[in-house]
Write a structure and sequence with these properties.
Elements (H helix, E strand, L loop, with lengths): L1 E5 L6 H12 L3 E3 H10 L3 H11 L6 H12 L8 E4 L5 H13 L6 E6 L2 H9 L1 E3 L5 E3 L26 H24 L3 E5 L4 H13 L2
Parallel strand pairs: 1-3, 1-4, 2-3, 4-7
Antiparallel strand pairs: 5-6
The protein binds zinc ion.
Zinc ion binds next to loops.
Length: about 210
């Protein structure tokens, strides 16, 4: 199956991608990962992308699509893929359709994981970290003594990424980027919506059931 995965930070998208990839036996393609791999491997496309990133510019869509096309030509993508982090914009989605079209292929479903902002904020902003590597959640997995690690008794801290203002900003960007994409794929009848506030395994089951029924 050729799938695209959409979902806000904190809605369990990464976990879903991993489980779906194992169950459906198709690779999970995170564009962040393939960019890093190309840059690390010093491929011509990687070097080109790096030149933009180093000068603080966005990597142009045609470079991004080439990097994606390259990855999709690998043998493990023959029976499908789960795209994560791409496309991000309508022009990218159109270029992606065009690219797949040339291979006589198309996107078969867009999995859209939905969760209310307030729930995500509660989830993420409750995380507490310890320098020893142990993690806590003030509601779901609290330490025995507030603010102190059970293992090493150090003071717990909040990651910058988990600060409420940062989460709100990330969610705002996510919604701005994603809603036009949802409309685009909705018009093609490809959107499947799922509730990301349910337990992870329940959502996984629902996703697999609805893909089976497609
Ligand atoms: Zn600790």
């Amino acid at each position: 199956m050729r799938l695209i995965l959409l979902g806000p930070p904190g809605a369990g998208k990464g976990t879903q991608a991993t489980v779906l990839s194992e169950t459906l036996k198709i690779p999970h393609i995170s564009t962040g990962d393939i960019f890093r791999a190309n840059i690390k491997g010093g491929t011509p496309l990687g070097l080109l992308a790096k030149s933009y990133i180093d000068s603080g510019k966005l990597v142009p869509d045609d470079v991004t699509i080439d990097i994606v096309a390259n990855r999709l030509s690998d043998e493990d993508c023959a029976s499908g893929f789960i795209m994560d982090g791409f496309p991000r914009t309508i022009p990218q989605a159109q270029m992606f359709d065009e690219m797949l079209g040339k291979l006589d292929r198309k996107v078969e479903a867009v999995i859209n994981i939905i969760a209310d902002d307030s729930i995500i904020i509660k989830r993420l902003s409750g995380r507490r970290m310890c320098s020893c590597g142990k993690t806590y959640h003030i509601a779901n997995n609290p330490p025995k003594v507030e603010g102190k690690c059970d293992v090493c008794n150090s003071s717990l801290y909040i990651r910058d990424d988990d600060k409420e203002e940062t989460i709100k900003e990330r969610l705002k960007i996510y919604h701005e980027q994603t809603s036009p994409l949802v409309d685009y794929y909705q018009k093609k009848g490809l959107i499947l919506n799922f509730d990301g506030t349910k337990p992870i395994e329940v959502t996984t089951r629902e996703i697999l059931d609805s893909l089976n029924n497609k």
